[in-house]
């Protein structure tokens, strides 16, 4: 536990690099509005079933397999763009351009007659967004040196706060516009195209992290490139940690966020079915969740610094599972905004705490020689439950005959296997965390 006065932990937020990470976090969370909450609400209003809306989430599988092309983001120089923007920003700019074009196309579509095209465009946005995440995560880790543990933790907090600003803060706009001034969902997509354009401008104006980025090697053959960019990052991870510990950590990463993902995938459908309006969703699920998450992401990073990442994960996981039961309560009571307020406050607090600890934990495991590849591999494994498996959440609700209370109880129980793994590996992980911090002294 740190002996520093608690108020000194806030000094890290004076560092400009931390706020740049926040801005890039906004870019990372924003695409989930386009193909997540906003699209779910649009499809629900058009009369699609819970199962169909849930399966639409299969486009998020891109986030689960993006590790397979992460070596390209780590090593391949994009012609012209690399010369102007550098390795990380050139990839981010390319991805933003692709998402801008796909979002503009969504603003011109009739969802009832062109559902297949909607799915294709959603997949395009997901692929570009998943690729962008690889570059953004590498950018964040490379902004800080191995000796800057507090800045790394603050970076994880601001990445989380930025993600929720992009997803909840900016995500509230279309819900307000659809109910408030009777816009069509297509009009909302057109407005969000302009938001992407502003993000692209910010990437151009930002600075590339040169100080702590590894040198890009020149490879003499395809075989040499594959070995150093694909094989070596994976084998190095297992070699450094040992097969038993590495396998246990991968199992934990895979299972930790599944319950939260099942809840999140069906939350908009649940809100609308139980009787909340689009304005209610914008205010409570978006705006309030946004600020709660930002505040507790910052506080969570400081608490995790003092408790340690492993203890922070355990506490955050227990709280995350418990908060899911609040939604079961709403399912029994109905559209009570006071109860919804309590639920989003608790859920925002537990989600922020657990996410900051989770991001810091994955960042801790990465070797800087393979930053993008190893982080993408670990994050993709965590996203597998959040994306591919959670696409069946609508089927689960239908299988339960629309029993939302039982559904949310099940999402709470889904967290327990990961916490059992964390408990069994706690001594090895604590030694790993201690050796990491000693190496920075």
TrEMBL record:
Its main location: membrane. One of its GO terms (molecular function) is transmembrane transporter activity. The chain crosses the membrane at residues 20-42, 48-69, 90-109, 115-136, 156-177, 189-207, 245-268, 288-305, 312-333, 339-363, 375-392, 404-425. The keyword Transmembrane applies. Signal peptide: none annotated. GO terms for cellular component: membrane. Pfam families: MFS_1. Keywords: Membrane, Transmembrane, Transmembrane helix, Transport. It comes from the Bacteria. It is a multi-pass membrane protein. InterPro entries: AmpG_permease/AT-1, MFS, MFS_trans_sf. It is found in: Membrane. This is Major facilitator transporter.
